Amino acid sequence: MPVKDQIKNFAKKLVEDQPDAAALRGLVRARKPTAMHFRDDGIVPNNPRFPALLYRGAVKLNGRRFPPEVVIDTLFDTNGWGRSWRDTVYDFVHYHSQVHEVMGVARGTARIECGGIKGRILNVKAGDVLVLPAGTGHRLIDSSRDFLVVGAYPQDGTYDECTDTRQRPDAVKRIAKVRKPKTDPVLGSGGPLLEAWRTAQPR
Protein backbone atom coordinates (compact mmCIF):
# COMPACT_ATOMS: atom_id res chain seq x y z
CA MET A 1 0.00 0.00 0.00
CA PRO A 2 1.16 3.59 -0.58
CA VAL A 3 3.08 5.43 2.12
CA LYS A 4 0.02 7.53 3.05
CA ASP A 5 -1.85 4.36 4.09
CA GLN A 6 1.10 3.25 6.20
CA ILE A 7 1.26 6.66 7.92
CA LYS A 8 -2.48 6.58 8.62
CA ASN A 9 -2.15 3.14 10.17
CA PHE A 10 0.86 4.19 12.24
CA ALA A 11 -1.18 7.01 13.80
CA LYS A 12 -3.95 4.55 14.63
CA LYS A 13 -1.51 2.15 16.30
CA LEU A 14 -0.27 4.87 18.66
CA VAL A 15 -3.58 4.91 20.54
CA GLU A 16 -4.50 1.21 20.42
CA ASP A 17 -4.32 -1.26 23.28
CA GLN A 18 -1.95 -3.96 22.01
CA PRO A 19 -1.23 -7.44 23.39
CA ASP A 20 2.04 -7.81 25.30
CA ALA A 21 4.58 -10.51 24.43
CA ALA A 22 3.01 -13.15 26.69
CA ALA A 23 -0.52 -12.55 25.38
CA LEU A 24 0.76 -12.58 21.81
CA ARG A 25 2.46 -15.96 22.24
CA GLY A 26 -0.85 -17.41 23.36
CA LEU A 27 -2.52 -16.20 20.17
CA VAL A 28 -0.06 -17.73 17.70
CA ARG A 29 -0.18 -21.31 16.45
CA ALA A 30 3.05 -22.93 15.28
CA ARG A 31 2.08 -23.97 11.76
CA LYS A 32 4.12 -25.44 8.95
CA PRO A 33 3.34 -23.31 5.91
CA THR A 34 2.42 -24.59 2.45
CA ALA A 35 5.14 -23.56 -0.01
CA MET A 36 4.14 -22.58 -3.55
CA HIS A 37 6.57 -21.95 -6.39
CA PHE A 38 5.31 -19.83 -9.27
CA ARG A 39 7.18 -19.67 -12.55
CA ASP A 40 7.69 -16.57 -14.66
CA ASP A 41 4.65 -16.53 -16.96
CA GLY A 42 5.96 -13.91 -19.36
CA ILE A 43 3.90 -11.16 -17.73
CA VAL A 44 4.43 -11.61 -14.00
CA PRO A 45 8.05 -12.49 -13.10
CA ASN A 46 7.23 -14.13 -9.75
CA ASN A 47 10.28 -15.08 -7.70
CA PRO A 48 12.95 -17.39 -9.13
CA ARG A 49 14.27 -18.46 -5.69
CA PHE A 50 11.74 -18.09 -2.91
CA PRO A 51 8.32 -19.77 -2.70
CA ALA A 52 5.18 -18.03 -1.48
CA LEU A 53 4.13 -19.38 1.93
CA LEU A 54 0.61 -19.88 3.27
CA TYR A 55 0.15 -20.38 7.02
CA ARG A 56 -3.35 -21.74 7.66
CA GLY A 57 -4.96 -20.67 10.95
CA ALA A 58 -1.70 -19.21 12.22
CA VAL A 59 -3.36 -16.63 14.48
CA LYS A 60 -6.17 -17.21 16.99
CA LEU A 61 -8.63 -14.39 16.60
CA ASN A 62 -11.49 -15.43 18.86
CA GLY A 63 -10.43 -13.36 21.85
CA ARG A 64 -12.53 -10.35 22.83
CA ARG A 65 -9.91 -8.08 24.34
CA PHE A 66 -7.95 -7.22 21.20
CA PRO A 67 -9.40 -6.62 17.73
CA PRO A 68 -8.03 -9.17 15.22
CA GLU A 69 -6.32 -6.53 13.09
CA VAL A 70 -4.47 -5.28 16.19
CA VAL A 71 -3.30 -8.80 17.05
CA ILE A 72 -1.94 -9.44 13.55
CA ASP A 73 -0.38 -5.98 13.24
CA THR A 74 1.37 -6.38 16.60
CA LEU A 75 2.57 -9.86 15.66
CA PHE A 76 4.16 -8.67 12.44
CA ASP A 77 5.72 -5.64 14.11
CA THR A 78 7.13 -7.75 16.96
CA ASN A 79 8.80 -9.99 14.39
CA GLY A 80 10.42 -7.14 12.48
CA TRP A 81 7.87 -6.67 9.69
CA GLY A 82 6.62 -3.09 9.75
CA ARG A 83 5.30 -0.23 7.59
CA SER A 84 1.92 -1.91 8.02
CA TRP A 85 -1.44 -1.11 6.46
CA ARG A 86 -5.01 -2.39 6.93
CA ASP A 87 -7.32 -2.68 3.96
CA THR A 88 -8.44 -5.09 1.28
CA VAL A 89 -6.26 -6.41 -1.58
CA TYR A 90 -6.18 -4.71 -4.97
CA ASP A 91 -8.38 -6.40 -7.57
CA PHE A 92 -5.82 -6.04 -10.36
CA VAL A 93 -2.63 -8.04 -10.89
CA HIS A 94 0.37 -6.37 -9.31
CA TYR A 95 3.63 -7.26 -7.62
CA HIS A 96 6.44 -5.63 -5.68
CA SER A 97 9.91 -5.80 -7.19
CA GLN A 98 11.94 -4.38 -4.29
CA VAL A 99 10.40 -5.88 -1.17
CA HIS A 100 8.69 -8.99 0.20
CA GLU A 101 5.15 -8.64 1.60
CA VAL A 102 3.14 -10.45 4.28
CA MET A 103 -0.65 -10.32 4.48
CA GLY A 104 -2.61 -11.57 7.48
CA VAL A 105 -6.36 -12.00 7.16
CA ALA A 106 -7.99 -10.27 10.14
CA ARG A 107 -11.63 -10.57 9.14
CA GLY A 108 -13.77 -12.34 6.59
CA THR A 109 -12.88 -14.60 3.68
CA ALA A 110 -11.56 -14.14 0.17
CA ARG A 111 -10.21 -15.77 -2.95
CA ILE A 112 -6.82 -14.38 -3.91
CA GLU A 113 -4.97 -15.19 -7.12
CA CYS A 114 -1.23 -15.67 -6.58
CA GLY A 115 1.41 -16.10 -9.25
CA GLY A 116 -0.48 -14.43 -12.09
CA ILE A 117 -3.17 -15.99 -14.29
CA LYS A 118 -1.14 -19.21 -14.51
CA GLY A 119 -0.72 -19.36 -10.75
CA ARG A 120 -3.23 -20.49 -8.10
CA ILE A 121 -6.39 -19.13 -6.56
CA LEU A 122 -6.23 -19.45 -2.78
CA ASN A 123 -9.20 -19.48 -0.45
CA VAL A 124 -8.20 -17.59 2.69
CA LYS A 125 -10.01 -16.77 5.91
CA ALA A 126 -9.44 -14.94 9.17
CA GLY A 127 -6.31 -16.22 10.90
CA ASP A 128 -4.48 -17.20 7.69
CA VAL A 129 -1.18 -15.54 6.78
CA LEU A 130 0.29 -15.31 3.27
CA VAL A 131 3.92 -14.37 2.62
CA LEU A 132 4.69 -13.19 -0.91
CA PRO A 133 8.32 -12.97 -1.98
CA ALA A 134 9.25 -10.02 -4.18
CA GLY A 135 7.92 -10.43 -7.71
CA THR A 136 4.91 -12.58 -6.82
CA GLY A 137 1.82 -11.46 -8.70
CA HIS A 138 -1.38 -11.20 -6.68
CA ARG A 139 -4.91 -9.84 -6.89
CA LEU A 140 -8.28 -10.16 -5.19
CA ILE A 141 -10.84 -12.28 -7.04
CA ASP A 142 -13.72 -11.83 -4.59
CA SER A 143 -14.31 -11.51 -0.86
CA SER A 144 -16.86 -11.23 1.92
CA ARG A 145 -18.00 -7.73 2.79
CA ASP A 146 -16.08 -7.71 6.03
CA PHE A 147 -12.79 -8.86 4.48
CA LEU A 148 -9.83 -7.08 6.09
CA VAL A 149 -6.12 -7.70 5.66
CA VAL A 150 -3.09 -6.45 7.57
CA GLY A 151 -0.06 -6.08 5.32
CA ALA A 152 3.55 -5.43 6.27
CA TYR A 153 7.13 -5.54 4.98
CA PRO A 154 10.54 -6.57 6.33
CA GLN A 155 13.04 -3.92 7.37
CA ASP A 156 15.04 -4.23 4.15
CA GLY A 157 13.43 -3.22 0.88
CA THR A 158 11.52 -0.36 -0.69
CA TYR A 159 7.80 -0.44 -1.46
CA ASP A 160 6.90 -0.26 -5.14
CA GLU A 161 3.97 -1.40 -7.23
CA CYS A 162 4.43 -2.97 -10.66
CA THR A 163 1.47 -3.37 -13.01
CA ASP A 164 2.83 -2.55 -16.48
CA THR A 165 4.61 -5.15 -18.63
CA ARG A 166 6.94 -2.39 -19.81
CA GLN A 167 8.38 -2.32 -16.27
CA ARG A 168 9.17 -6.01 -16.42
CA PRO A 169 12.84 -6.11 -17.63
CA ASP A 170 14.00 -3.71 -14.91
CA ALA A 171 11.73 -5.34 -12.33
CA VAL A 172 13.32 -8.75 -12.93
CA LYS A 173 16.74 -7.30 -12.12
CA ARG A 174 15.44 -5.68 -8.93
CA ILE A 175 13.69 -8.86 -7.77
CA ALA A 176 16.96 -10.81 -7.99
CA LYS A 177 18.58 -8.35 -5.55
CA VAL A 178 15.96 -8.53 -2.78
CA ARG A 179 17.51 -10.31 0.18
CA LYS A 180 15.97 -12.92 2.43
CA PRO A 181 14.42 -11.31 5.54
CA LYS A 182 16.01 -11.80 8.94
CA THR A 183 12.83 -13.10 10.58
CA ASP A 184 9.62 -14.99 9.90
CA PRO A 185 6.66 -12.57 10.25
CA VAL A 186 4.60 -15.17 12.16
CA LEU A 187 7.15 -17.08 14.26
CA GLY A 188 10.15 -14.76 14.43
CA SER A 189 13.82 -15.71 14.32
CA GLY A 190 13.17 -19.46 14.47
CA GLY A 191 10.27 -19.52 12.02
CA PRO A 192 9.98 -21.89 9.05
CA LEU A 193 10.29 -19.12 6.46
CA LEU A 194 14.03 -18.90 7.09
CA GLU A 195 14.56 -22.59 6.36
CA ALA A 196 12.14 -22.67 3.42
CA TRP A 197 13.89 -19.74 1.79
CA ARG A 198 17.41 -20.88 2.73
CA THR A 199 17.00 -24.17 0.91
CA ALA A 200 15.05 -22.74 -2.02
CA GLN A 201 16.59 -23.55 -5.38
CA PRO A 202 16.56 -21.25 -8.42
CA ARG A 203 13.76 -22.23 -10.80
Written overview of the protein:
The protein is α+β, with helices and mostly antiparallel strands. It has one domain: Jelly Rolls. Helices cover 22% and strands 25% of the residues. The chain is built from five helices and nine strands; from the N terminus they run ααββαβββββββαα. The mean pLDDT is 92. Residues 182-203 are annotated as: Disordered.
Fold topology:
Elements: H1 3-13, H2 21-25, E1 34-36, E2 52-55, H3 68-78, E3 81-87, E4 101-107, E5 109-114, E6 120-125, E7 129-132, E8 138-143, E9 148-154, H4 168-177, H5 192-198
Antiparallel strand pairs: 1-2, 2-7, 3-9, 4-7, 4-9, 5-6, 5-8
* Helix-strand topology string: HHEEHEEEEEEEHH
CATH superfamily: Jelly Rolls
* Coarse morphology: globular
Radius of gyration: 16 Å
Q: Give the helix proportion (percent range).
A: 10-25%
Query: Would you tell me the overall average pLDDT?
Result: 92
What is the rounded distance between the termini?
A: 28 Å
CATH topology (level 3) name: Jelly Rolls
In total, the number of strands is 9
CATH architecture: Sandwich
CATH class call = Mainly Beta
Write down the domain tally: 1
Q: How are strands sequenced across the largest beta sheet?
A: 1-2-7-4-9-3
User: Proportion of β residues?
Assistant: 15-25%
Would you identify the regions where 5 or more consecutive residues have pLDDT less than 50?
none
**Largest sheet, if any?**
6 strands, antiparallel
Overall structural class, as computed from helix and strand content, comes to alpha+beta
Region (Disordered): 182-203
Protein name: Cupin
InterPro entries: RmlC-like_jellyroll, RmlC_Cupin_sf, UCP019307_cupin, YjiB-like
